[in-house]
Amino acid sequence: MADRRVHKGLPRGLAAAAAALMLALGAGAAAQAADQITFVSQGGAYQKAQTIAILDPAAKKLGITINQDSAPDSWPIMKSQVASGKPTWDVVDVPTSYCLRGGEQGLVEKLDFAKIPNGAAMPAAYRSPYSVAYEFYSSVLGYNAKKYPDAAKAPQSWADFWDVKKFPGRRALRNHPLATLEAALMADGVAPDKLYPLDVDRAFRKLAEIKPNITVWWTSGAQSAQLLNDGEVDMVMAWNGRITALIKDGAKVGYTFNQGILQSTSLCILKGAPNLSAAVRFVNEAVDPVLQANLPLHIDYGPANPKAFDTGVIPAARVPELPSAPENARRQALMSYEWWSSPAGEAAEKRWLEFMQK
Amino acid sequence: MAAGVSDPSLRHRRREQGLMFLLASPALVVVLALVVVPVGWLMGQSVFDHGFTLENYRRIFVEPIYWRSFSLTFRFAFEVTVLALLLGYPVAYVATAVGRPWDILIMSLVILPFWTSVLVRAYAWLVLLQRTGVVNHLLADLGLIDEPLALVHNELGTVIATVHILLPFMVLPLYSAMQKIPRDLLQASASLGCGPWPTFVRVFLPLSLPGVLAGLTLVFVLALGFYITPELLGGGRTIMVSMVVSRNVELYDQWGAASAVGVILLACVLAIFVVVGRALPLDRVLGHR
C-alpha cells in the first residue's frame, strides 16, 4: 500500500535520510519551542506536497514546531515504538487499516472528537474512534485511449472490464486482494454501496473467471503505469494519481471514476505519544477545510474533508480530477477498512497467495 | 612429540598458521556477525512464538501454497541451470580453445554484464521482451510472427533473464577447469587414432566435469533464492519461495512463518552442498587445486 507513494522524485531511501536529517536539525531548534510534535508520513513527493499544503500552515497557525519523519511502511515501527514504552512519533499518516488495527492492539490513542471539531464535522464513514481520514485516492479503471479512442465506447465499469467479448484486449490487475475483491463483486453485479461485508467466495469465483485473461498482476504503482504507458496492456486497475500523471506526460490513456474504490490514509496518534495535547490540536488543524483544500494544489490526491470543496481554494477545473470530489465520490465505492481489518478481511487477504498459484 | 615441537620448521609453520588465522579473523568476525548470528536468530524465530512451537513448520507441510512454491522454485532453478550449462559450456570451450587475444575478449563479454546491477538487467529484459519490445518488433518486421509473442510477465521471461544473470557463474568455473586440462592429452588421444568427437567425449568432457559440477551447483543454488527477476518479469504468477517469504512478512506480518520458509530453503541448499561434496571434494568446487 505504501508503494503508491513512489514518485519520480527522490528515491525513497534518500528521502527518508533527508527527512531524518531534517528531524535531527529540527530537534535542536525545537528544544526551545514551547510545543512540538513529530509527524510521520510516507516520504517522497507526497510528503513534500503535504509540507507546503498542510504541515507548514498548521505549524504557523498553532504556534508549534512540526518535526517530520518518514517511513515507507510505518506499521512495524509503530509496533516497536509503542512496545518500547517511549515512542518518539506523535502523529502518523498511514493506511486507514493500520489505525484500526493499531486501535484494536492498543497501539494508538482513542481520539476525543470534542477536541477535534473539524474531524467531528466530517462524514461518519470517514472516521473511526482512533482515526480521522486525511486524504483520498482511488483504484480506478484505466484504459489505453489508442485502443479505445471514443471514451463513450471505452470500458466504463468492472462489468466491462470482465467482459472479454465486448472488450477484447489485455488486462492487468493489482497483485493484492485490497480493492481487487471489491472490483470483482461489482463486476458480478453487487452495488457499490452494498459491498460489505464482502462475499469473499463470490469475489474469488468472479476473479477466477477473469484470471486467464489477466496478462500481468502488478505489484508496484510504477509498474501499473508503465504497463499502460507501454501498451503492454489495454486496461488496468490502477491508482488515479498514477494515471493522471501519465496523462500529464502526454500519454494516450483514459480512466473513469465510475465504480472506483475510494481509499484513504488516516491520521492517528501513537499510544503514549510524547506530545499528546499538541498532537490532538494538530490532527484537528490537519483536517481543516482550507488546509485540506491546499493538498490537491500540489499533488493528485483528494482532500478527506468534503468541506474543502466549499472553500473556493480548489480551482473548478481541478475538481473533476479529484477522487473525493462529491460528484466523483458518489460514483465510487468507499472502502471499508473496518471490514479489511476484521478477522474475515484478514482471512480473505491470506487466501490471495493460494488464488494466485492456482 | 617433544622433538616435533622443537623442530624449527614445524614451529615456523605453526606461527604461519597463527598469522594466517589472524589475517582471516576480520572476515570471520564479519561472517559471524552478519551471517551466523542472524541465521541463528532466524531459526530461533521460526520455532519461538510466545513459547516453543512447530506451527510454522506444520503449516509449510500442510498448506498447499508452500508446496506449490517450492516445486515451482526447484523446477525453475533446474531449467535455469540446464540452460546455463547448454549456453555456457560452448562459450567456455571456445574461450579456452581460441588463444590470445580472443579468449580475453570472450571472457570480458561474459564478465562485463556481471558488473551491471541485477535490477537494471531485469528492466532491460523487460524492454527487450515485452509486447511492444525490441524482440517482438524485430520478429514482426521480419515477418516471422503476426501477433506479438508473450515473452515476459510469465515463467519464460523469468527464466530467460535469470539465465542471463547467472551465466557468468557457469562460465567462470567451466573456463577455469578447462584451462587446466593439458592440451597434450588431446594430442595424445589424436595421435592414438581417436577422432575429434571421441576425443572430446572420452578425454576432454570427463576432465571438465569438476567445472561442470561447480557451475551447476553455483547456478542452481543462486537460482533457488532468486527474487528480483520473478518479481519483475513473472507477471505476478511465478511465486517463488523467496516471494513467499517476502509476502509472509509484508502482507501477513508473520515473521515466524517467513523464517521457517527461509530455514527450509537453507536446509535444501545445504543438502545439495553435502550431496555434491560427496561426489566431489568441495575445495575443488571452490577452485583449489
TrEMBL record, chain A:
Keywords: Periplasm, Signal. Residues 1-33 form the signal peptide. CDD domains: PBP2_polyamine_RpCGA009. Gene3D superfamilies: Periplasmic binding protein-like II. The keyword Signal applies. This is Putative spermidine/putrescine transport system substrate-binding protein. SUPFAM superfamilies: Periplasmic binding protein-like II (SSF53850). It comes from the Bacteria.
TrEMBL record, chain B:
It comes from Enhydrobacter aerosaccus. Residues 70-276 form the ABC transmembrane type-1 domain. It is a multi-pass membrane protein. One of its GO terms (biological process) is transmembrane transport. It is found in: Cell membrane. The chain crosses the membrane at residues 21-43, 72-92, 104-126, 156-178, 199-228, 255-280. Keywords: Cell membrane, Membrane, Transmembrane, Transmembrane helix, Transport. CDD domains: TM_PBP2. SUPFAM superfamilies: MetI-like. InterPro entries: MetI-like, MetI-like_sf. Its main location: membrane. PROSITE patterns: ABC_TM1. It holds the Pfam family BPD_transp_1. GO terms for cellular component: plasma membrane. Belongs to the binding-protein-dependent transport system permease family. CysTW subfamily. The keyword Transport applies. This is Putative spermidine/putrescine transport system permease protein.
